[in-house]
Amino acid sequence: MKANWLVTVFVLTPLVAFAQKQSSAYPRETSAVMSARDHNVQVILEIFRALEERDPSRRTVDEREEALYQPDVEFQWPSALPYGGTFRGKDAAVWSATWNPLQPTAAERKMDPQVIGADDRQVVILYHQRGLSPSGERFDGKVIGLYGMRDFKLSHAQMFHFDEAALVQFLQRAARELKETKR
Predict the structure, then answer these.
(1) Cα separation, 145 vs 123, whole angstroms
(2) Beta strands per DSSP E along the chain
(3) Strands 114-118 and 122-132
């Protein structure tokens, strides 16, 4: 017991005092220096935040999102979806024409993104794709997104839906309902 007290008094106390003096020599920003991985994760999560907070009446990417995309950004969606295929450039967010009418409130736009993995070139996110048809049918499907990053901006996005068939069926029914309500 006496040995522990001696270690505390003669070894740890001077080390703590030294560390406290040293911490004032370094600005607080150094502890906030972000790795490339963390910066990429932050960018992707900001994109998700922008999508969740978007105005559902808009048809194109807004400035907030555009600032997070490379000019030649590429989006890849499964070909079975109404907006399926590969699209490039800032106007490649063609999914909004399908999803905006099906996401009238923040509850449907909420994606609950979870980081699955990341490095200095890619981020993998698990999230929810939610929708509400005109008849009140709800859809809530999980998606894995693989996001390529270049210079801390999104350069490539590819989505993998856990239940693509259920999503396609929901979108087909919802499209018919939307068409009928416009008549």
Answers:
(1) 8
(2) 69-77, 85-88, 114-118, 122-132, 138-150, 153-161
(3) antiparallel
The SS3 of residue 152 is coil
Per-residue pLDDT tens digits for 114-169: 999 999 999 999 999 999 999 999 999 999 999 999 999 999 999 999 999 999 99
Q: Residue 16: what residue type? A: V
**φ, ψ for residue 94, nearest 5 deg:** -70, -15
Q: Are 167 and 141 in contact (CB under 8 A)?
A: yes
Does the predicted model carry a pTM greater than 0.85? Answer: no
Q: What angle do CA 57, 61, 64 make, to 5 degrees?
A: 105
Q: Which residue in 37, 60, 36 sits closest to 50, CA to CA?
A: 60
Over residues 84-93, the pLDDT tens digits come to 999 998 666 6
| Contact residues for 42 (Cβ-Cβ < 8 A; gap 6+) | 34
Which of these, 50, 46, 75, lies nearest to 155 by C-alpha position? 75
Separation of alpha carbons 153 and 148, rounded Å: 9
Cα separation, 51 vs 145, whole angstroms: 14
Which of 81, 78, 79 has the alpha carbon at shortest distance from 97? 81
Reading the block at residue 48, the tokens are 């998700």
- The 3-state DSSP class for residue 77 equals strand
